[in-house]
Amino acid sequence: MTIQGDVVPPHFLVVVPGIMGSRLRDRQTGRVVWVDFSTVPINPLQWKAWVENMLATLAYPNPDLEPAGIMDEVVFAPPWAKQEHYGRLVAALEGMGYLIDPVEPTGGRPALYTFSYDWRQDNRISAQHLAAAINQWQARHPGAKAWILAHSNGGLVARWYIEKLGGKGRVGRLFLLGSPWDGAPRALQMLFQGLYILFRKRFNVFDVPTLTRAAFRTFPCSYQLLPYRNPFLRDNNNELIDLYEGAGWLHDEGQRQLLRDGRRFNEELGTTTSVETICLFGRKRPTPTGGVVSLAAGGSWTDIAWATLDAGDGTVPERSAVHPGAREKIPVVADHGDIYVNPFALEVLQWELMDKFRLPTERERDAAATSRLTITFTPDRDAYSPGEPIALRATIHGNDDGNPVSGAVVQSRLIWRGPLPGSGPAGAAAAAPVVRLWEDEAAGGHYSAEMVAPATEGYYQLKALVSPPDEAAVELEELIAVEDAGGD
Fold it and tell me: Are the CB atoms for 481 and 385 separated by under 8 Å?
């Protein structure tokens, strides 16, 4: 794109969230089904009915549900993702200068619109709805093109609109954040085994894996998130397993049709990019990249042993998140569910959306240049009981030579984010002390420490401030849950 001096090109920004990233409500009653945590009963004896009713209502097709805005709640749903609410992204974009969801033309400030959609359905349908929304918004901004910021499955929706529904004439730029072009093994994990936590651990007594697996197998979108090019499954004899035969793990012909259509969707979409595309992808997070299938007599699947590498964002492998047709491919050390609020990713967006048009041409890429270091920070688990130790680790390595970086100061603290669903009103937990991670004398560049999970249940943000020698400090974050698991 050519720099136009000090003028940001006329555009309006459209945020397209990923799977589970839009609220869904009942058309008749207005009741939010996915998901309003204020409706979770305080009485644990009523939790089972609440969970079962929600998942039964979500089963597709259910035409009584409609999208009702992007999620402004944390969605804690491993193994797919621990997903930050998109309100944090919208607030950051507002701080960059965007006006949120304006009804009238905005004058000097570019507009930002959020596109919520029924993420259960075929992405082709969601793309049709996106086309209608962009047509409506473009009428408010004559001469402006849409710039789309799409996370995860939202990238599939946006790309189908651009490539298959004529969107390339209305879209100027596409930003992909953790969006797969060749699916993610995590999608199969979700379809084969279900979620192992839905919002909180104590819901697991209601057989959450089985209930969520049954629900997700009804969603056309789930099958469109499966890898279709990269063979990633083998049996115990190291022979390739064809995921799309389907008979070994899907016992319903309707679901096998959804599986075949999911592959057809991705084959038809391909990897063509007809508009300027910038791809931000997460890396250095343990991510399933393959699996070994255990087979029973007759070829039915009994289990999958997953192989995990530090080669993705925890959900989408790097090879799938790095779109081959993107003009720029920018690595971010971030999880799938928070890449869109990662400080470095937001700096890149600030540059690409606003600042580079206000600076001389020769400085176009300097402000968004990646660090010379790769820094990781992770806890050992997603969820803890009060008083349980939380093992923290951080690593720092040079990007050019891969050498470990010693002498950094790494500090971590816990910040209370909110109560668990069904916990009732709760005040914020007391501030936790800052913990320093100390370098391993035997393994330079590796830092570790333990902190104690607080007594107050809730969602917490683990924040780390990493100060390498002769480098600016970097802040990283991880979402965890603290819950008394005595009810399991």
Answer: no
User: How many Å apart are CA 1 and CA 364, to the nearest integer?
Assistant: 11
Q: Which residues, in sequence order, are bridge partners of residue 237? A: none
Return d(Cα 185, Cα 164) in angstroms, integer. Answer: 26
CATH T-level assignment (fold) for domain 1-370: Rossmann fold (3.40.50)
Q: How far apart are CA 356 and CA 366, in angstroms?
A: 9
Nearest C-alpha neighbor of 29 from the set 53, 64, 55: 64
Task: Measure the CA–CA gap between 345 and 331, rounded to whole angstroms.
Answer: 9
Residues in the chain: 488
Q: Quick one: which of 248, 265, 314, 262 has its CA closest to 286?
A: 314
CA gyration radius for the chain?
A: 22
Nearest Cα neighbor of 185 from 336, 34, 296 is 336
Which residues, including other chains, have CB under 8 Å from residue 108's CB and lie 6 or more apart? Answer: none
CA–CA separation, 431 vs 416, rounded Å?
8
Claim: this prediction has a pTM higher than 0.85: no
DSSP 325-350: T-SEEEEE---TTTGGG-HHHHHHHH
Over the stretch 49-68, which tens digit does the pLDDT of each residue have?
Answer: 989 999 999 999 999 999 99
What is the CATH number assigned to the segment(s) 373-487? 2.60.40.1930
Q: Are 146 and 170 in contact (CB under 8 A)?
A: yes
Residue 212 in tokens: 């969520």
Tell me the angle at which helices 153-164 and 253-269 cross, rounded to the nearest 10 degrees: 60
In this predicted model, what pLDDT tens digit does every residue of 401-436 receive, in sequence order?
Answer: 888 999 999 999 998 888 887 776 666 677 778 999
DSSP state string for 197-244: -BSBGGGGGG-HHHHHHHHHTT-HHHHTTS-SSS--EEETTS-B--GG
Contact predicate 410/465, CB 8 Å: yes
Q: Where are the domains of the chain?
A: 1-370, 373-487
For residue 410, the one-letter residue type is V
Q: How far apart are CA 133 and CA 165, in angstroms?
A: 13
